Structure formats: C-alpha cells, structure tokens
C-alpha cells in the first residue's frame, strides 16, 4: 500500500534521512499507536523498528489483515479531519461519514447481514470512518440510527412536542410514485414560430367572416408557452391587440375558451379567482379548486399577478368575500407555504391522525382549527399517510368524518382539499363530471379545468374518468357541447379512451 506523499518502498518503511514530515490530514500521533518522533518516523527508542514486510503486529496497533490495515480495537480512533486519501486504500471525506437518514444502503447479502469480508460489529465506528470510494457507511439492510426497524410499527417520537418531521422510516412504506413521463394532452409543436402563427390568425379573422377551423387547428396544436408569445408577435407585426381582435370576431363559450388559452397559467388563475370573488355571489368551489391544487410557487405567482392586475391582495379579496372557518381555510391556502418535502415521518403521521380524531369524531363539537392547521400546512405525501393512519385508527375515511362533523362551505372546502391531496386526477375527474351532469353545463368550470390541466395530467384525468363513470371524457364532452366550442375542447382532451 502506498500513501500520497510517501514514495513506495520495498519491504516497508526503512529509515530515511530527515524522515517523513507530518502531513496535513494524515495519521496524527495517538496514544497507543506510533509515538511521535522528531522529523517523521525514523527508528526511535520505544518505537517500531523497521522490519521486512512492514510493521509487525503490535498490541494496540494495526495487525496484518487481508486487504490492508482495518482499524482494530485499541487502534487509531477517528480524528478530526478524517483520514487522508490513500491510493488503493479506503479514502474518507473530511469528518468521516455521518449517519445517513433513511438507513444503510443495500448490499449483497442474504437478509441484510454484513458479508463475511466485513469486520466484526465491535469495529463499526472505525469502519464507518473509512468506507471505500466514498460509499455510505454502515451495515446494509438496517434502519437509520435511532429509527425503528421498517418491519415494525413506528415508535412515538422521542420528543412529541418537537417531532423530527420528515426524517422517519415508515412502518408501512409506500412504493415511491413512478414517473410516467409527460401526462398532458397538449405538447409543444415542433418548429412553431409565433410570427408565422399570427399570420394564420390574421388571415383567419381578416375580411368578411371568420375561419374558426383555422383558429382551432392552430391553437389546438400549440402549447401554452407557444400560444402566449402570439399576443406580442401580433402587436409587433400588425400594430393591433390580438385579444381585442379575437373578442370582436368570436362569441360565446368558444370566445371564452380561446381567450383562456391565450393567457399564461398564473394570469388565467388570477382572472378566474377574480371572477369567482367579484359580484353578488361567490364561486367557493372555484376558489378551493385553484388554491388546493396549485404548488406553493404557483400560488405565490398568482397572488403577485392578482395584486398587480386588480390593486388588491388576494388575501384581502378572499377575506372580504368569505367568513368563518371557510375564510380561514382559504387564507391559509393562499399563503403558498405548504411543506413540499417528499419524505414522510410515520410517527408524526400517527400523531396528526390522533389529533384529527380528537378534534372531530372523539369530541363534542368540532375543532375546525386543528383540521385547518394540519390540512393546509403538511406536505401532500405526509397527509396521504395521515389519512391512511386515520382510517386504521377509527375505521372511517377522513372524508366521511369531515362530512359528519362539518357543514356548508367549510365542509365542501375541507373535503375538496382532502380529495385533491389523495388523488388529484380523481378530484378533477369528479369536478368535470359534476360540471356536465344534469341539465345545463357549468361551462366556466369545464373551460378552466380543460385549459389548466391539458399540459399537466389530462391523460390521468381521462383514465380516472373512464374508470369512475364508464364512458370516456371525450364522449361526454362530445354529447354535452357543440360547434366550434366542442371542437376546441376535444383538442384539449386529446382523444378518446
């Protein structure tokens, strides 16, 4: 074995003139090890004389082992700074390897036990400091230090008042969601050019009559980031406002759908929230739909646009138009501060499930504030674990408990949040079905969902729709709408299942 800074020597380390000066990060003198000697490691009284083949076994030193000099009891304890990198040896980064959350990496070996080449358990501390090639330390298959074994139920947090959120090992671990790739129905059109596209739009609207089919074919085959630049390109090319021209040429729901498609997602959401709040009535379902399904970054962008466009903060607008616990729920959601970590602490999930049970089913009256605090602040993966624990704890689905304990807008709001967190495509499939069932169609809801989800999860929504209602979303839209409006909606739907 050779060390950086130490030229290889046959037969060990013979005495050298001047010796080997101490190297930064190397092996400092330690009690029980190699005594310090002036200038390096020359032979010294009481030290280790050079011997053929290296250092002979010494009490407290490094006994010869296959594969190098692993630490032994009584040898060199880990020193600050770790061991210096060694060619062919076991390098370690500064400070050694700290314990890693989530347990030890899997290694070959039946049942997760260490392979025969690993040192005895008593040497674990030293082995952790010198793992080969920077690999994570520890024995494979085991849990993180201080965490329960994965096959047993998670123990309560060490300090329940300050739970280690997001650092536990689930007692019933869920398989991570498998990325299914792009799940939208509208994709970027290869080689799209906004300057050429606006020529098509101008030609479709110029003169007597309007070529709606040309507009449908163009907009139905462009993604949002390809449609939005058309507004600026149209004004640059023709000195006219595209939105104004579209309004003057189109009518009804087809006009509303086209205009919605010409806006960025955040601008469209801000406009929909404004429409839901202003006027005599309030579209509470729209408020909940947008605020419960958007990410933190999206909600903050919507709030910034709302303030810039309408001169009033989104929170103030909501507060002035709603009341009670429903107002608190919406204000909490519009902060955009939900935890977005993917890790789940099963011990905290159990605690939260108990808190929800104590605030509802196991109490005279209902503590809506506790529901608000948990449903609006916890991460979505964590809340899915909470809902599962709640079901196991009291034998009732969290949705049914909310319906039993609450009423009115706050009930609708809480249920919508729960459904959206459980399975977003299922939530939107239900929203679409409700918009089209019965006499009349809630066209604003239909337009909003078809436009906003067409580049996110429309393929998943179609699957859930077919599963829940026995006919495709495409078929339902075809039977419930008509004309150019239907044609463009079907473009957003992307096909039948």
From TrEMBL:
<dbReference type="GO" id="GO:0005634">
    <property type="term" value="C:nucleus"/>
</dbReference>
<feature type="compositionally biased region" description="Pro residues">
    <location>
        <begin position="142"/>
        <end position="153"/>
    </location>
</feature>
<dbReference type="Pfam" id="PF00191">
    <property type="entry name" value="Annexin"/>
</dbReference>
<dbReference type="GO" id="GO:0005886">
    <property type="term" value="C:plasma membrane"/>
</dbReference>
<protein>
    <recommendedName>
        <fullName>Annexin</fullName>
    </recommendedName>
</protein>
<dbReference type="GO" id="GO:0005544">
    <property type="term" value="F:calcium-dependent phospholipid binding"/>
</dbReference>
<comment type="similarity">
    <text>Belongs to the annexin family.</text>
</comment>
<feature type="region of interest" description="Disordered">
    <location>
        <begin position="1"/>
        <end position="76"/>
    </location>
</feature>
<dbReference type="GO" id="GO:0006909">
    <property type="term" value="P:phagocytosis"/>
</dbReference>
<keyword id="KW-0106">Calcium</keyword>
<feature type="compositionally biased region" description="Low complexity">
    <location>
        <begin position="91"/>
        <end position="108"/>
    </location>
</feature>
<keyword id="KW-0677">Repeat</keyword>
<dbReference type="GO" id="GO:0005509">
    <property type="term" value="F:calcium ion binding"/>
</dbReference>
<dbReference type="InterPro" id="IPR001464">
    <property type="entry name" value="Annexin"/>
</dbReference>
<dbReference type="InterPro" id="IPR018502">
    <property type="entry name" value="Annexin_repeat"/>
</dbReference>
<dbReference type="GO" id="GO:0012506">
    <property type="term" value="C:vesicle membrane"/>
</dbReference>
<dbReference type="GO" id="GO:0032506">
    <property type="term" value="P:cytokinetic process"/>
</dbReference>
<dbReference type="InterPro" id="IPR037104">
    <property type="entry name" value="Annexin_sf"/>
</dbReference>
<keyword id="KW-0041">Annexin</keyword>
<dbReference type="InterPro" id="IPR018252">
    <property type="entry name" value="Annexin_repeat_CS"/>
</dbReference>
<feature type="region of interest" description="Disordered">
    <location>
        <begin position="91"/>
        <end position="185"/>
    </location>
</feature>
<keyword id="KW-0111">Calcium/phospholipid-binding</keyword>
<dbReference type="GO" id="GO:0001786">
    <property type="term" value="F:phosphatidylserine binding"/>
</dbReference>
<dbReference type="GO" id="GO:0005737">
    <property type="term" value="C:cytoplasm"/>
</dbReference>
